[in-house]
Design a protein that fits this description.
This protein is mainly alpha-helical. The protein folds into three domains: 2-98, no CATH class; 110-161; 165-221. 74% of the residues lie in helices and 0% in strands. The chain contains eleven helices and no strands. The protein has helices at 2-15, 22-31, 37-50, 61-67, 73-89, 91-98, 110-120, 127-138, 144-161, 165-194, 199-221. The longest helix has 30 residues, at 165-194. It starts with a helix and ends with a helix.
């Protein structure tokens, strides 16, 4: 229902515009952007850069996109980022995809391209892994959700590989000891306040706490 209403509103705006005007061409691109989002990305990039929206009565680029084009701000941001990324990283592909006669057979999803952009900016991701992702994206062989899962897995693998096993064990030990110390202090306070156990036992627990604190301090000094 909402999609039908949006298309109707766009058609009403189109009826009041010159068919060859930039504003009308952008609205036409919105209607078919699922088929070729690159065309819409190119228009949005130009409108944002030249601030053409001001001449159409909109104070900001965001207000133009949400009010006239009925596109969410998050979607617009992804479209722009993906278009600019292709313009920089794959200009030949972009040119071919935008040409009517040379349109590529399968267009990658703009969300997949946005994920690929993120991967390109991560130095921890091996070049061969990025190359595999790039090939899958440009051949439209993977859905955005699956590509996102692969991206997160690569980040996690890189993070794990960069951590020294001995340092990781020391940190885990330190965190665990501090957690236990906090629990012992809480237990000692409860026992002392409510007199659940004898004073000698509570005092002994206090000594254990001091010993643990001493070991933590000694470890920090080394």
């Amino acid at each position: 229902m909402q999609k039908t209403k949006t298309l109707k509103e766009i058609d009403e705006k189109l009826a009041a515009l010159e068919p060859e005007s930039l504003r009308a061409q952008i609205l036409q691109a919105v209607k078919k952007f699922k088929g070729n989002w690159l065309e819409l990305g190119r228009y949005l990039s130009a409108v944002d850069r030249n601030q053409a929206f001001r001449g159409w009565g909109f104070p900001t680029f965001q207000s133009y996109c949400t009010r006239e084009l009925k596109i969410r701000e998050q979607t617009v941001a992804k479209l722009l980022r993906s278009f600019i990324f292709l313009k920089k990283e794959a200009p030949d592909f972009l040119s071919s995809a935008l040409e009517e006669e040379g349109r590529v057979e399968r267009l990658p999803d703009f969300e997949s391209v946005d994920i690929l952009r993120k991967a390109r900016g991560r130095k921890t991701i091996p070049e061969e892994e990025y190359a595999r992702m790039r090939e899958a994206v440009f051949k439209a062989e993977v859905e955005p959700r699956e590509l996102g899962r692969q991206f997160r897995s690569l980040l996690e693998a890189a993070k794990t590989a960069s951590v020294d096993p001995e340092e990781a064990w020391e940190k885990r030990k330190s965190d665990t000891v501090r957690k236990v110390l906090g629990s012992l202090k809480s237990i000692r306070s409860t026992l002392e306040d409510n007199k659940f156990l004898s004073y000698s036992i509570v005092q002994s627990l206090g000594q254990v706490i001091k010993q643990i604190e001493g070991e933590i301090s000694a470890a920090e000094e080394t």
